[in-house]
From TrEMBL, chains A, B:
Protein name (database record): Probable phosphoketolase
Provenance organism: Mycolicibacterium agri (Mycobacterium agri)
Short name of any one Pfam family annotated for the protein: XFP
The Xylulose 5-phosphate/Fructose 6-phosphate phosphoketolase N-terminal domain, residue ranges: 15-374
Keyword Aminoacyl-tRNA synthetase listed: no
UniProt entry keywords in alphabetical sequence: Lyase, Thiamine pyrophosphate
Gene: xfp
E.C. code: 4.1.2.-
Example GO BP: carbohydrate metabolic process
Requisite cofactors: thiamine diphosphate
Boundaries of every Xylulose 5-phosphate/Fructose 6-phosphate phosphoketolase C-terminal domain copy: 589-789
Length: 809, 809
């Protein structure tokens, strides 16, 4: 463990440079305080009065001086080394600081021309902050240089790593607040250094900012002995460099040395790996910065300590409009930064300060990596049709959909080695995507044993047993202009529900910023899904992520349920080409029937839903619609249709398959929504619809409640009934099985007569028999699991078996 | 950093004892393999044939021998020291191991009498595992001695700490798999030792089991240098004791020494804190155990290494029914444990082995702490009516609902210092529950500075910036028979969506185990909710947790939206008294109008929903129903009713308030559901219902789509439109404001005439004016924000203002 304490070294900064950096820091702090407080009088050209103060004081001061300090020192490094650096703000509440720096660099006025570099611009800059019609109080898509929402804590470091992958020239400076450091995702993110390849990836420079407090409490990492903290960080695989103090001049000196050392170490590590062929995992540098919370703000307010305590978290002086003492303290605080030295009379930053900021795209607020769409290059995609499985007739042969997709992804990876990654929480093989390992390895910088397979620093498949890391790495990778896919067990993707929320919010709000360019979509492949986790049991059975996603802005969310291998290929190709969406694909990995040729699959997926004529016997208006979405519901629906066609040949059945469930919504609610006329043409205005759906059944009601025929829609789906059992028992537990669907039809269609009543009883018997078979044999009746469109329903056997035993359970 | 390597010490176990422990371990391993493979011939009294093998081989062998080894050695410690120990299984996939040990201890046959301690019992034990109608493949509620589902990884250590709080006599042994250790929640959980009071809490003994692999990949912690790992664990605040090897006899010796040392250290720490008054945070011991994955299983299968690799994760020999070599290998593997030495001819465990297991409730499988309901004692609750706010007339005075609740919780804490905790992610003060600090402190074992307030090891309020830790600690605390409440910002509770899933599954499945007793409910107080996060912006605005919870089994979920302070008190009291539910309470923290006296509140909450006659002018059948659920929707609905009554006095308006939204569901779907007759009586069978709802509007449709009047229900709620703005602007953005509700009424009620048309235009103008006021002043128009039932709508002012400016935006 090598630790540097640069405090003990000689001063690094000549007085001139120190004074300039300090002035720059003061300027950023001044602009930050101004944003929180001031409606007007931005440069204090007149004495401060209550009318200059905002009526509602909203913002977070506590973390801001630290963010500004780091920013100023990174500018020095960028200028001195022509370094390519982006700045990730863990303590995203410190929005004023990042806005201030973007303004000081000129980027803000370039992006938002109404906010000029003059007194009027300053007034507008201040007024808009946390003001109705203005900008958010946190770092957000509105903030030039930011790649993520700063409201929900925990994802800074994992985003930083995602940004660094395949950007060998980039250094991602990542400020981690000591509050954020208590979160689970952040705690796990430190280990991302076992997945960073020093040859082809950039560097991440974590800066753990210990200001000691979160909202109202001290933080854990600030309150353990320093040697314990250093052990922890060394244990995470870093070499911490510590900077600590509350005297600005002293801290400036320390921090300048620390950044120099850190960048020297990064350069040395990259040189060793790239030129000298070093293959040992490096111990990357990081910085621990201990400075007071709310530094340079009011020391005491109303007799209580504020600077250096939790009381500086938000607005240290809360009564500035009504309390003269607070107002005076605010003026004193603002003037302590000596604004006249920083800005000239017109409100422009003085030239000697502007000169110490980087220029052009080297400015962290203007670095194109922080506006990933600018750098986005299309994927070079092979023709997905080349991976099609042959389908001579529908529902006759089987394939494993995700295994087929794996061959396509293998070649996607092969053709896009600089811009595509596949993430998975140790489930890529389980999800049957192993073909990808024919063209690449799994990223691994930790130790490798001789028995291991397919591990290498250069691997394009990233596996770690943390959905948070998979999601976060991918988000960081996409936000900086690349592509990828996250494959995950369906039930456990709920682990990242909240991350999805924040990313979806970012996608929507950034789509409203004309200066931000669209990025690649966040693609989920959810497999090992609810209906085929019979072997793992209840803990692995949850299809609710679709519901969660459906609550997000319709402009940015898409959900696809391809029923077989060829439709999965078509959907996956579409998703990989799309921009700025969250695409959720749910598909099975087990051997399953194929239904559509590639041409049919493309046509079907393009429409998003459609009538399957080959499975229907209704030529005109049907007596009943059997609708289905999802591979298992499709199988059960077709088997039900098969029974109905054989046993009740006079019943006109229409089979409808839905791939894109957003088509079910009205076109007023979702861009993919069908018009009412289109919807009625498919689902009829008045016939019973038995809808077999992959997930919780009420989602279909939520999507269709405005439709003409909604009252006639009867939805079967997962009703939270699961356990360790067989696949067919799973569908039976939830009344989604073919036999129950036939019973549903008989119950809903009027006037079917005694033949139907007899069939209904046979279906009930068949369910009992199936359950008995399963419990006796430990596997499903092959008459059921082996069903194909041609094999038919052996109703006679089921009936006789029920009669044999007399079981009427 | 003090590290012990007991390998270097002298042998601890005499040969006899070592042989007995090894035999016990072999017995557990034998039973584990038997469960995975065997339908019959459980003791190999005849040669193994394919008919003895299950048709589907489901289970996880890889982690199991390690779990069994640790169990056997803990038994030794328990016996030697009469220790009170429970066993938490992080690698919950190792279900066979925990079932095997419960069976060896006799607990299994006590709980499940059909599974006796004889050959027939063994046959049933084996057959039921992962078999339809049998038991899950993972540790689950069916497993005696378990306190949680083992399917989703990450929560073992946080549950262990939750179990240890306020159980001074208990040692919670917690096995952490090296796969699980990669998850975020687990990574954060290590720091729980800063929240464990050695005086009044028990001890947690983490056992990090490094078998090197997860499903298909090596693990990070197994593949960093040992000194780096030790630094990490020391950084987390532990003293690791390492045991490593692949020779059983040697590992037995090491592990015996390690456990002795760990328990000695625990005793010394507790003695120092409890007797000698030591107040420094102790460095608790932990064990690092490095043994091969799938240890004692097949070394090679089909020429490939299996023992010690990822290939042993599930079923090492997959073709035992069809492949003679696999079958022979399986028989050799099973016989390697020498079952004849372990069980007598009747199938009973030999007495010398039974004798080395603990007895009675000292058996980890029978420890009552692992069946928390057995130990549950009612809370001593003060009378919540004593905390009521005075309400002389409705909608006239304000209070802060959560601040009022805080006074009640203060006294709940005071009266239940051994059995109630309040959890919050650094938000308890922000959520205005600070009154609790009048009776207690915040738990804190890390360093305390002079400036800090309300921190102490004995605190009953637990604050850490990790929703995962808050949730996990509380789950562990509840599962072991205590009570608590988790207060959280509404938007960020999504962070624990997946944990909620698993806990809800546990609650439901455990309710079906007659031998498990009900535990206290998991209570959420969600505040700082979507409508009052206007200042924090979009990232803090998400009401979707209710939707997530509503997907869980109706038997175990309850959602309450009390509209004011007194209803919040009534609901909170009810939830704290309830058992075995997930209760979600959503309530505001800002000053808000009060509506009901305490008596009225109790009556209203008991009904769950009801007509507010005082706000309605309809005496019989209304022309329109204004329904509302949630504090802000209630405010806007009442203000809309006020406008309608003044401006359209002939319109018969009924106001309905909903506290318990599960009442909206049919009684066939949820135990709280209203009958259709009751529902129709409140909401009418055919009149327009304008429903103002706290969250995503479609949830109300999902709950009511089967109701007679569903087609007439028009729901307003959060449509994912948010930003940093003012409270009233937030409701306007989502069309939930009073003015829009009036417009909705006018749009939906037929035949209202020209006066209504004029009013509609005035409402549209009022919206424009409100928005303009907000953007000019940075706060809401006090005419709007100051509305009370008596103040009325100053429509004239709004209209004239619109006319003045001519703005028709």
């Amino acid at each position: 463990m090598s630790t540097n304490h640069p405090a003990s070294t000689a001063p690094r900064l000549p007085d001139d440079e120190l004074n300039l950096i300090d002035a720059y820091w003061r300027a950023a702090n001044y602009l930050s305080v101004g944003q929180i407080y001031l409606l007007d009088n931005p440069l204090l050209h007149e004495p401060l009065t209550p009318e200059h103060i905002k009526p509602r004081l909203l913002g977070h001061w506590g973390t801001t001086p630290g963010l500004n300090l780091i920013y100023a020192h990174l500018n020095r490094i960028i200028r001195n080394r022509d370094a390519n650096v982006i700045y990730i703000t863990g303590p995203g509440h410190g929005g004023p600081g990042l806005v201030a720096n973007a303004y000081l660099e000129g980027t803000y006025s370039e992006v938002y021309s109404a906010i000029g570099e003059n007194v009027d611009g300053l007034r507008k800059l201040f007024r808009q902050f946390s003001f109705p019609g203005g900008i958010p109080s946190h770092v957000a898509s509105e903030t030039p240089g930011s790649i993520h929402e700063g409201g929900e804590l925990g994802y800074a470091l994992v985003h930083a790593y995602g940004a660094a992958f395949d950007n060998p020239d980039l250094v991602v400076a990542c400020v981690i607040g000591d509050g954020e450091a208590e979160t689970g995702p952040l705690a796990a993110s430190w280990h991302s250094n076992k997945f960073l390849n020093p040859v082809t990836d950039g560097a991440v420079l974590p800066i753990l900012h210990l200001n000691g407090y979160k909202i109202a409490n001290p933080t854990v990492l600030a309150r353990i002995p320093h040697d314990e903290l250093e052990a922890l960080l060394a244990g995470y695989g870093y070499r911490p460099i510590t900077v600590a103090g509350d005297d600005p001049a002293n801290v400036h000196q320390q921090l300048a040395v620390a950044f120099d050392e850190a960048f020297d170490q990064i350069a040395a590590i990259q040189q060793a790996a790239r030129v000298d062929g070093e293959t040992q995992r490096p111990r990357w540098p990081m910085i621990v910065l201990r400075t007071p919370k709310g530094w340079t703000g009011p020391r005491q307010v109303d007799g209580k300590p504020v600077e250096g305590t939790w009381r500086s978290h938000q607005v240290p002086l809360a009564e500035t409009r009504n309390n003269k003492e607070h107002l005076a303290q605010l003026e004193e605080w603002l003037r302590s930064y000596r604004p006249d030295e920083l800005f000239d009379d017109t409100g422009a930053l003085r030239p000697q300060l502007r000169a110490i900021a980087p220029e052009g795209t080297r400015r962290m607020s203007a670095n194109p990596h922080a506006n990933g769409g600018l750098l986005l290059r299309d994927l070079d995609l092979p023709d997905f049709r080349d991976y099609a499985v042959a389908v001579d007739k529908p529902a006759a042969e089987t394939s494993e959909a995700t295994r087929v997709l794996g061959t396509f992804l293998r070649d996607v990876i092969d053709r896009n080695r600089d811009r595509f990654r596949l993430m998975g929480p140790d489930e890529t093989a389980s999800n049957r995507l192993s073909a990808v390992l024919e063209s690449t390895d799994k990223t691994w910088l930790a130790e490798i044993d001789p028995v291991d397979e397919d591990l290498a620093p250069s691997g394009r498949v990233m596996e770690v047993l943390s959905e948070h890391l998979c999601q976060g790495w991918l988000e960081g990778y996409l936000l900086t202009g690349r592509h990828g896919l996250f494959n995950c067990y369906e039930a456990f993707v709920h682990i990242v529900d909240s991350m999805l929320n924040q990313h979806a919010k970012w996608l929507f709000s950034s789509s409203e910023m004309t200066w931000r360019r669209p990025i690649a979509s966040l693609n989920y492949l959810l497999t090992s899904h609810v209906w085929r986790q019979d072997h793992n049991g209840a803990s692995h059975q949850d299809p609710g992520f679709i519901d969660h996603v459906a609550n997000k802005r319709p402009e940015v969310v898409r959900v696809y349920l391809p029923p077989d291998a060829n439709t999965l290929l078509s959907v996956a190709d579409h998703c990989l080409r799309s921009r700025h969406y969250v695409n959720v694909i749910v598909a099975g990995k087990q051997p399953a029937l194929t239904y559509l040729t590639m041409d049919e699959a493309i046509a079907h997926c393009t429409r998003g839903l459609g009538i399957w004529e080959w499975a229907s016997n209704a030529t005109g208006v049907p007596d009943v619609v059997l609708a289905c979405a999802g591979d298992i519901p499709t199988l059960e629906t077709l088997a039900a249709a098969d029974i109905l066609r054989r046993e009740l040949p006079d019943l006109a059945v229409r089979v409808v398959n839905v791939v894109d469930i957003m088509r079910l919504q009205p076109d007023s609610e979702h861009p993919h929504g069908l018009s009412d006329r289109e919807f009625d043409a498919v689902f009829t205005p008045d016939k019973p619809v038995i809808f077999a759906y992959h997930g919780y059944p009420w989602l279909i009601h939520r999507l269709t409640y405005r439709r003409t025929n909604h009252a006639q829609m009867h939805v079967r789906g997962f009703k939270e009934r699961g356990t360790t059992t067989t696949p067919f028992d799973m569908v039976m537990l939830n009344d989604l099985d073919r036999f129950h669907l036939v019973m549903d039809v008989i119950d809903r269609v009027d006037g079917l007569g005694t033949k139907a009543a007899t069939l209904r009883q046979r279906m009930a018997d068949a369910r009992l028999n199936a359950r008995r078979y399963t419990r006796e044999h430990g596997e499903d009746d092959p008459n059921i699991s082996g069903w194909t469109w041609d094999s038919g329903f052996r109703a006679s056997e089921a009936t006789s078996m029920a009669q044999d035993t007399g079981d009427n359970e």
